[in-house]
Amino acid sequence: MRLFLDENTNDMNKIIHNDCFKEMKTMPDNSIDLLLTDPPYGINLTPQRSTSKFKNVKIISDDDLEWVDDFSKEIYRICKNTAFIFCSYQKYDVFKISLEKAGFIIKNCIVWDKMWFGMGNNFRPNHEFIILAIKTKFKTKSNNLENILRFRRLHPSKMHHPTEKPIKLLELLINESSNEGDIILDCFAGSGTTGIACKNTNRNYILIEKESRYIDIIKERLT
């Protein structure tokens, strides 16, 4: 395991190069104010578009979801209350059942409208799900949000990771469900977009990423 501190802020902000399952086991109970993460979807995703810079880049741990129960148990233990987990419609039921078995209440299924058609024919996909899982009561700050959030997905040429999410989408989730100074955990950090959203909203972050190539990208984007 390698730990990098963000020299531009404080030692609450951490970039950790490690397997998230090993790392989360070291975290105290109820130590995370908000979990916001985009895990592998279990759909064996390998971008195939010939013009994409991510063509044939395999998403690791995406060929099965045998790890989901361990993931659900750990995040339930370390989260104070609230977790946002991105997932696909194909495996929504797997995540939902696992999170509920761990003790979470599924408060909502938020739809991210990407405002951009995906690959395929006929009914081409242009959305992903975000599961809102809680331990107890939850209320958004504005108290007046729809559960369909419309943020245009990034153009592939501007992405640092094949499943990168828009910063503004993550900022909205963070602002509506946490306070300034809170600790936000992204245990599948990818290229570190959650960290940028935390900086922009005055939150502290813990980013865990297994692949070294993305650790380098995170450090470049955040430090």
Count of discrete alpha- or pi-helical segments spanning 4 or more residues: 6
Low-confidence stretches: none
> What kind of sheet is the major sheet?
9 strands, mixed
Residue-averaged pLDDT: 88
**Class computed from helices, strands and strand pairing:** alpha/beta
Order of helices and strands: EEHEHEHEEEHEHEH
Count of DSSP E strands?
9
Bin the strand percentage.
15-25%
User: What gyration radius follows from the Cα positions, in whole Å?
Assistant: 16 Å
Helix content: 25-40%
Write out the strand line-up for the largest beta sheet, numbering strands in chain order: 1-2-9-8-3-4-6-5-7
Distance between the termini: 19 Å
Which term fits the overall shape?
A: globular
Write up this protein.
The protein has helices at residues 20-24, 68-78, 92-102, 167-177, 193-200, 212-222; strands at residues 2-5, 14-17, 32-37, 79-87, 105-113, 127-134, 148-150, 183-186, 204-209. It has 223 residues and is an alpha/beta fold. Strands 1-2-9-8-3-4-6-5-7 form a 9-stranded mixed sheet, sandwiched between helices. Helix 2 (68-78) crosses helix 3 (92-102) and helix 4 (167-177) packs across helix 5.
Note the main attributes of this structure.
globular
